[in-house]
Amino acid sequence: MKKLSIKSSSHSYPVYIGENIRFNLSNLVRKSYSSFLIITDENVGGLYLDDVKQSIGISDNIHHVVIPAGEQSKNIQSFYALHTKAMEYGLDRNSLIIALGGGVIGDLAGFVAATFMRGIDYIQVPTTILAHDSSVGGKVAINHELGKNLIGNFYSPRSVIYDVTTLHTLPLKEIRSGYAELIKEALLADQELFQDILQTNLDSLSNSKLIEHLKKGIHIKAKIVEQDERETGSRKYLNLGHTLGHGLEAELGYGAITHGEAVAIGLLFALYVSEKEFSNNLAFENVFHWFHRNQYPLHIQNMDVNALLDRMRLDKKTLMQRIQMILLKKISEPQIMEFDNYKLEQYITGFISYLNDRMTS
Amino acid sequence: MKKLSIKSSSHSYPVYIGENIRFNLSNLVRKSYSSFLIITDENVGGLYLDDVKQSIGISDNIHHVVIPAGEQSKNIQSFYALHTKAMEYGLDRNSLIIALGGGVIGDLAGFVAATFMRGIDYIQVPTTILAHDSSVGGKVAINHELGKNLIGNFYSPRSVIYDVTTLHTLPLKEIRSGYAELIKEALLADQELFQDILQTNLDSLSNSKLIEHLKKGIHIKAKIVEQDERETGSRKYLNLGHTLGHGLEAELGYGAITHGEAVAIGLLFALYVSEKEFSNNLAFENVFHWFHRNQYPLHIQNMDVNALLDRMRLDKKTLMQRIQMILLKKISEPQIMEFDNYKLEQYITGFISYLNDRMTS
Description:
Two copies of one chain form a homodimer. Chain A is an alpha/beta fold.
């Protein structure tokens, strides 16, 4: 088992990464709690809920709620219903919420913990590769119908317990989704990791390689959020690929493509714009080939570019109605840049037609 | 104009108290913001919205939302609708929310600010006496149908701008409501203020006397929240009178009596139980007489005591299903005490019948 430590403004917390550590929760959760509420989804619950319950102990005070899987659950209705459950189960300020699942569960259960009686403890037990990113750094949120993650808090977990054995059951689509965030982190800060991922074939990913990549990705993420927890500066760089990515997710309808698949297209767009703006040669071709070889969906059909721009304008980086994008001057050298509507529209139109040409040629 | 300064864990903020200072907002709000959203209710909006808008300046970026007055607005639907408005008006992370109104507006608008894009700045512009309490200390929340203030955050404002001139338009019912919290603060920490309030007739309250009481009340509140912002210890004392008070409000239906009127009954109950538990002679009689003389509603009719206990158990101080009450060993010496159901039921039944006897005798 590996252990990283993350500093937040309110407290430090450990990230444990290891095999089968879901069976060891009661030792990893040091504090004693009056009761527990495990929040999970239908997919993950069927696989790991019993393990986690038994791992905490035998008690009347261990409750659970299973919600439908998918981004659609990250809404205000689920949020309120989870509060109702927490009250009905008699949770109090000394209770612990356990987020067992992917990013949707982590964001939603974390936001419930952040707001239940003005904040109680929670831990993240991520079960996807994608959630290596969202489980660290304390960003919790639900979606608004107008945009993703627009209602939320900065609220750090008490620990992150990452049992990589649970990743074995992931479908390839979810592995792809997670690796988009890993590539993003590599592009921001680690040329070596970037090259190593480009050498990796997701079809035949080994467990040791996955753990190595996850550990490096979490390390990059941790360094950035420690410097700028509340995203007033450098944490914005973690939005590389997300300005278009979030817009695509909202415009296509949550769940139509995975978050990571949307981020993959967003990363290509960021590289495309970076190469035009800075006349550099980043790695668009290499990344495009790697995404293509690993079967990321890269076609964008029948897109209303103006509607997409409206979605992008609701991005949390937007200031005075002007969209901000993270670009790369070179690998490990991100930069934020502001665009007016016209220029961004030109870039998006050009990018979509370039992408579609490449995919059909 | 008087100025107090409050330290919170994230920043310090000023509380300005003075006459007609609502006309001076642009000078008191130091930072420059990309846009403004004033949240107010129908009553206050009709009186002061124009003053506040003009005081900020002439700009396309000053928006407002007027919601129905009353505790019923402090719910999840209003919360979501305000987020929608904030997005439609194009608010960004450099925008400011202005809570113009009483405690309901302050709590609701503050919670919207705390969660909009994971937190933007807000200021409190309280227009009731009661809100001298809620506007200081950073507690923001909405109600859940099962209990009051159960969904919220600790999130401090950037400043509190308290124009006491706006208090002139308050009906007597609202003055009563505010003075219940002032008496509570006096009981917790200031024997002299307590005696002075008991000498005050609310019918003929002078402006100078009111300012003096508000300043002292805010000072007491500020000292307590600075010591224990997140209510792990001494801040709980500010709940004096609220365990029963919140229960009554929920059980009678929000809006049936004002918050302060419910707290007044709760304070009498806390004094009643304190005198029995500690065999002391606090001031039950004096406080009862003062409430009675100032026409606080002290009758409790047809109350289902078990339903009331269920409501009280949802109090945020409850631990392991056991209700915690704040009692007074003597004035300025609060103490937290845990009760089992049976004992509390006896006390409540005894108290209600005692109160009703006194009121009909």
